[in-house]
Amino acid sequence: MSILINESTKVVCQGITGNAGTFHTRGCRDYGTQMVAGVTPGKGGQDIDGIPVFDTVGDAVSATGANATMIFVPAAFTADAILEAVDAGIEVIAAITEGVPVLDMVRVYEIVRERNVALIGPNCPGLITPGECKIGIMPGYIHNKGSVGVMSRSGTLTYEAVWQTSNEGLGQSTCVGLGGDPIVGTSFIDLLKLYEEDEQTESIMMIGEIGGTAEEEAAAYVAEHVTKPVAAFIAGRTAPPGKRMGHAGAIISGGKGTAAEKIKALEAAGIEVAESPADMGAAVVRAIAKKA
Amino acid sequence: MKIHEFQAKELFKQSGVSVLRHVVARTAEEAAAAYDELATPIVVIKAQIHAGGRGKGTVKEVPGQHGVQLVKSREEAAQVALNLLGNTLVTIQTGEEGKVVNQVLVEEGCDIARELYLGIVLDRAVQQPVLMCSTEGGVEIEKVADETPELIHKEHFDPSYGLQSYQVRKLCQRLGIEGSSVRTTDRFMKALCRLYVDSDCSLVEINPLVVTSEGDIIALDAKVSFDSNAMYRQKSIAEYRDLSEEEPTEVRAAEAGLSYIKLDGNIACLVNGAGLAMSTMDIIKLHGASPANFLDVGGGANKEQVTEAFRILLEDPNVKAVLVNIFGGIARCSTIAKAIVAASQEIGFEIPLVVRLEGTEVEEGRRILEESDVEIITATDLTDAASKVVAAIST
Fold it and tell me: Which of B35, B117, B196, B260 is an active site residue?
């Protein structure tokens, strides 16, 4: 089954006429995603490789039935682009942009929750259901259709994990990049719920990092509600406190958000934690064996 | 982005949040003049650095001089200022190197009846800003959170609506603030919440928040930091930035579009992606060595960026080897490989360089590295990369 997106998902790209928007629209289309439209205010009527460009998301949805969007709009306008997509009835939003002011996201988040829209990101690589639909910047070819549900706060570290699980012969049902910001639209818990209900997903891989308490909350949820095997890796054991490690959300502050705390909580919930980033695929294999 | 206490107090003043009268002094003479101007029997001299723990901190060059001191005469004011200015204050938050003090705050004395704590921060779990306060002012709030969390009171607020009066009344009850002080507190707290939102703050902290014997509410200390992502729309606040308080190599790296954090180990890392970069640091540690830095070269990684990255990494005298770990998604391994070779040729490596490539066009990338004149140790996966670089520094 997979979660959130599949072969019938119709995707619009907001910011399609920018360099990144054009490049990645082509990348997704070449992977097999149904890229049905693009939106850049003022450029309606143009097209990119035959993909029609509209002035508004509303127009794009009316014309094409698009139900998902990939946002490549500059940080100053990303919140607005997300709200526009919500307003137009889009169900899945992948906001790729990095650098969105966090208070913008506080406002957006409330609306997104109210309207029950799946917002992935911002500051994320997107999401992919291998073999069916790719919405984002990840290299499609490293993924295989399979049974591991992947969810991660990282970009390239996710690719590493996907690569390792593919090499173990496991494949992925869906991979979701949550994003590296302190406030993101979809949490580990939101995805655990979906993966637990999804028939194609047989095990779950969680990739977290320092900062915040998302992993601890996810661990508590797993202990109560998740029956499928779960493996995890936490990046940043060696990160110094108080410093932003690239991602705006990757910061240990007031002693909270350390890798050690997260690992402790995950292990207490029976989650198989990889000690090394080289061990992520193997951790999934171990988790599956334990529950077998 | 951090700012100094005196700058935070300027913002407070502009927002109608009460602070004591104060003067910023950059010389001993200015400090003495400030003492006269303030004309209170006791005056406080406070070192201005981007770190807390100043009261207990000590000056390297003048042992026994702390970062905060009460003085009772203009001569004392001048002497303390002299001891601080241009010297290095070491506190529990600065690390051993400490920070150079370039200005001091000279502030009037005040009749403190009670010391409270007030902070506004983004509650990531709830995804809303939260105002926290406590009767335990003047101590480390983390300690209070650990030992007596029931003494910390929280009210979340919507950035568009701000803090509501009923929330202020609730908090006043918990804090034992009564009578006319409740109205003062209402104005004070709402002004701070407005400041937090309007200026895109990440933290506003007042410790201690003082209640005077007259019932006035005053910010005795002020710590404010901002969401770096929002500084493009906060031009006047962006001007408060004090580059002398930041690590120079980190500033230089940021200007080159690199995300760099200096650590104290001896294996330098160059990686694409923050999570992968942290993991690379982690795996080096797991193999018994210590990372010299965090560096995320981002999705671009062209020759100029890789060259500048290498320059920055190699300027660290502790570095004995470099590990490049690239998982090419959009970035092609062949492009990165060419950049690495060109950069190495331009700079001339004298220490071992281990490169691990994976992802898009990896075969081509590895071929380019093997065929180049530059001595590069290639690695296949993460374990191979970590073992090779650790072995390289042991020989």
Answer: B117
Cβ neighbors of A80 (< 8 A, separation 6 or more) are A73
List the single residue in B141, B200, B328 with the smallest CB-CB distance to A101: B200
Interface size, chain A vs chain B, as Cβ–Cβ contacts under 8 Å: 172
The dihedral built from the CA positions of residue A48, A51, A55 and A56, taken in this order, carries a sign that is negative
Q: Is 70 exceeded by the pLDDT of residue B300?
A: no
| Shared-domain flag, residues B79 and B144 | no
> Structure pTM?
0.92
- The predicted structure's pLDDT at residue A111: 93
Among A103, A134, A168, A209, the residue to mutate for chain B (most B Cβ within 10 A): A103
Q: Which of the listed CATH numbers 3.40.50.720, 3.40.50.261, 3.30.710.10, 2.30.40.10 matches domain A138-291?
A: 3.40.50.261
Q: What ipTM describes this predicted complex?
A: 0.91
Q: Alpha-carbon distance B19 to B188, whole Å?
A: 11
Mean per-residue pLDDT over chain B, rounded: 93
DSSP-derived secondary structure for A82-144: HHHHHHTT-SEEEE--S---HHHHHHHHHHHHHTT-EEE-SSS-EEEETTTEEEESS-GGG--
